[in-house]
Write a structure and sequence with these properties.
alpha/beta; 172 residues; 30% helix; Hypothetical Protein Ychn, Chain: A; 5 helices; globular
């Protein structure tokens, strides 16, 4: 029996990923002729279910990196950012990532890397919501959170309501 041999080819010549709208987030590589490439005529509606915390205190929350990378994708493809109708619903371990800088530093010893991304997403029009039920269960004062985040009554009900409005659900 012959063993299978896998060869990793490096240097395929891909262009560098671009992050024109939110430089702190992952970038996007335009792929010529790819199916489902964003167009200037479409509107993109998605709600990002943010449950996971960051791997390290110096890293972005996975959901924030994903929503910001999609804003970057649309910017690279020259889609008006008004066509990005995005929302993020924070609950569970993701709540740590939306603490204001003072509370984040007290908990992790470093500045909150998510705050600039939250501010840019809010300015772009992304809805940012945190589960009020989680805050109540944790006895966490909403004043300890980033000012760009709004307290929703319940994460799951918010996710349901946005899906009923036609938002695609993406979970991180």
């Amino acid at each position: 029996m012959n063993p299978l041999v896998f060869v990793l080819v490096l240097g395929a010549g891909w262009p560098a990923a671009q992050s024109p709208a939110i430089p702190e987030a992952s970038g996007y590589v335009h792929i010529e002729g790819a199916p489902f490439t964003p167009t200037v005529h479409d509107v993109y509606k998605a709600v990002f279910d943010a449950r996971a915390g960051a791997g390290k205190p110096t890293e972005l929350l996975p959901a924030l990196d994903m929503v910001a990378s999609e804003v970057n994708a649309l910017a690279v493809e020259k889609v008006p950012l008004a066509h990005a109708q995005f929302a993020v619903v924070f609950h569970g371990d993701a709540i740590d990532g939306i603490l204001d800088d003072a509370h984040y530093k007290a908990k992790f010893g470093v500045k909150n890397p998510n705050l600039p991304v939250l501010a840019k997403l809010k300015a772009q029009g992304t809805g940012l919501y945190v589960c009020g039920q989680n805050l109540a269960a944790l006895d966490l004062d909403p004043k300890a959170l980033a000012p760009d985040v709004e307290v929703a009554s319940d994460a799951l009900l918010t996710l349901i309501a946005l899906q009923q409005e036609g938002y695609a659900l993406l979970s991180y």
